[in-house]
Amino acid sequence: MIESKEIVKKRALEGGAPTQGWVFEDADIIAKRPEMPQLKVLVATAQEFPTFTYTVDFVESLGRELNLAVTGQKDAKQALDTAASDFNKLAAKAGLQK
C-alpha cells in the first residue's frame, strides 16, 4: 500500500478524495463529511467516462459547470445543460455526431 491509513484519513477529513474503500464507512470521516455514504454509492455505480479526441476539454467543461452548480453560482440544470451542449459541440468537432 502506498499510503498509510493515517494519511488517507487525514486527507479525507480535510476534504480530499477517498483513495481507499474503507474511507466511505469510517465513523470519524462520516461525522465530518456526511455525504460519504452517498458518494460510496455514486462511485460503485459510476459509468465509464467517454474517451474521445476532446475528452480533456469536456472534463474541463464538466468540472467547471459542476463547480458553478455546487457553489450556487448556477442552477444545476443550467450547468448540466451547458456541459451537455459543450459535449455535443466537441463530439461534432471530433466527427462523432452531426
Description:
It is a single chain. The protein is mainly alpha-helical. The protein folds into two domains: 5-45, no CATH class; 55-93, no CATH class. Helices cover 60% and strands 0% of the residues. It contains five helices and no strands. The protein has helices at residues 5-13, 27-32, 36-45, 55-70, 76-93. α4 runs antiparallel to α5 (76-93). The longest helix is centred in the C-terminal third of the chain and has 18 residues, at 76-93. The protein is elongated and about 50 Å long. The termini are far apart. The model has no long low-confidence stretch (mean pLDDT 92).
Structural class, by secondary structure, is: mainly alpha
Q: What is the overall silhouette? A: elongated
The Cα radius of gyration reads 17 Å
Helix-strand topology string: HHHHH
The number of helices is 5
| Overall strand count | 0
Q: Spans with pLDDT under 50 lasting ≥5 residues?
A: none
* Share of residues in helices: 55-70%
Largest sheet: none
